[in-house]
Amino acid sequence: MFHTELGDPALLRARAWSLRARADAMWEAAARLHEVSTKGVWESPSGVTFASRVDECPQTLHRLASTLSDAAQVIESYADLLA
Q: What is the spatial distance between Cα 20 and Cα 77, in angstroms, rounded to a whole number?
């Protein structure tokens, strides 16, 4: 997937940037879902049902985003070693 055997620091940094961009999108989605589920923006029985089902989603997105961010850091460190 990352073709690390090629040892191309620029390619590795580009992949790391892509992972960080995806992590940022996940953090943004988690923040928006948290607002919807906790700020009472959608006040109705269907809103209550939605909020109860989506409560865990922001936590999951934060964990995934952190994992992607950590992976990006490792890849960037590797690219630095190769440079």
A: 14
